[in-house]
Task: structure prediction
Amino acid sequence: MSSSDPPSVPDPGGTSGPTGSDPSPDPDAMVAVPEVTAPPASAETAVPPSRRGASTFTIEGRSAPALFVIGWLATLVGFGMIAVALLSGDTSAGRILLIVGLLMLAIGLIAAAGSQGVERRVRAVLPYVGPSPFLVFAAVLPVSILAGVLVALPLHALGVPLDGPFGALVAVSVQAIVYVSLVRLLVVDTGALSWRHMGVLALDRTAFGEIAGGALWAIPIIGLTVVVTDILLAIFPVKPVSPLPPTADPLGFALSLLVGVIIAPFGEEILFRAFATTAWVRALGLRRGVIQAALIFAFAHVLTVSGANAGDAFGLAAVGFGSRIPIAIALGWLFVRRRTMWASFGLHAAFNGILLVIAEVASRSI
Result:
């Protein structure tokens, strides 16, 4: 199979209209028709000119008007409540308002994604008839935050450090569950794409072979990543921090490996390769689909970056984003080439695992 072939893509069912055309009239059969002059349009009968956004912000002709309205209203209310909560500062009322705002935002974005998917399926004019990966990814964010808060509260009450290996294990596991759940709810259960269409195949002997084959690409991609990172660090003199720092403890290191090699790659491959890359390759073509999915993958990894000041935070975000572009493109290319998520999962797992081992060994040798 050539590298230009997209992942398993079903026939884009349906067209937007009849495939035939009306036969041309016979000139010999045409007869003269008296000319009729239309009366001048009055204010009541005149058709208003087309305005930008007139067909977007309306429920007229919508196949799921309730979802459309809920999506817009809940999203706007959620954003408003979050803004007020942030302006309120770190107060009890502000925290409660922030949680409620995130809940409203999550409801609104999920409803908007559902509405978009319904409209695309009904019109059936696009090769991909599900919600935009941008919209699904936007819905993932507030849901992940809310789920993380619900899990963090009991951990905090039990005295478990949230930034430790066990806290990271729980947080990343919850995030992976959110990824898989929303892809299933908004994409698979609606019939936009099946798991098989997205290359999520059974974990059998063939799948393990694909995982091993993908892992072989880890060393050259790590080498390229090191070169890109060195160039970026020369431009932005910052000190990046690993999301899974060395633990100097056997149990902590084992938990970090479980998170970095199994749980995080699985959830991210479901969202960014199986779903986003498949959808965008169908809708936009091979090259643009892979690049767009790679960019959103890299962007997702710098959303929570912070620094001592604005310049430091920008530098850390730029280095974090740019250094992930090589692995992001490689993951998309391998996924498209092999037509299975397990190949890109193998590369992702090996890439993370090797870097974790190197960081752990380096920390213990100091």
Notes: The chain has a mean pLDDT of 85. The two ends are 47 Å apart (CA to CA). The first helix runs from residue 65 to 88.
